[in-house]
Amino acid sequence: MTTHEPPAPPTPVVIGVGGCRDVAEDEVLALVHRVRALAGAVVPCALATVEGKEGEPGLRAAARALGVPLRAYGAAELAAVPGVAASATARAAFGTSSVAEAAALLGAAAPYGAVGAARLLVPKTRSAAHPARATAAVAAAATGEHRVRTD
Fold it and tell me: Which pLDDT tens digit goes with each residue over 10-31?
């Protein structure tokens, strides 16, 4: 006789997104679905980006379509996140070398107050569009509780 354990609940995550000006909602959503698939059984609790991008129609529409908030972090906060992929383009545009990975990690760590309380599940990934106009990364809380702030 075999016993079946119920499947584990999906892990709550924050998806960090970066994008060019006027990036389309469709491109952002396609990328978000792709990184979610790469992450496995996850449920997004928020999209996160750099201050100044929270007003982008494509990012706002993608967050609405997913039913999650769009959070924005300052360039200084993002620049302080260790161990993220560096981008000269992001540094020139926003004053931080990482948007997607750093924003995902900050969002996932927010309930714990320390970036070390989050882990990157999917590194910065470019959209499939040519040329790519969006990037995304996925992070989850590194604690066993898997709490991710949803406000």
Answer: 889 999 999 999 999 999 999 9
Distance of CA 116 to the CA centre of its chain: 16
Distances (CA, A) of 22 to 48, 77, 84, 107: 17, 24, 25, 23
26 token code pair = 């469709």
Summarize pLDDT for 95-109 with one digit per residue, the tens: 888 999 999 999 998
Rounded Cα distance between 78 and 72, Å, is 10
Q: What is the 3 state secondary structure string of the chain?
A: CCCCCCCCCCEEEEEEEEECCCCCHHHHHHHHHHHHHHHCCEEEEEEEEECCCCCCHHHHHHHHHHCCCEEEECHHHHHCCCCCCCCHHHHHHHCCCCCHHHHHHHHHHHHHCCHHHEEEEEEEEECCCCCCCEEEEEEEECCCCCCCCCC
Give pLDDT, residue 146: 42
Which residue has better confidence, 136 or 89? 136
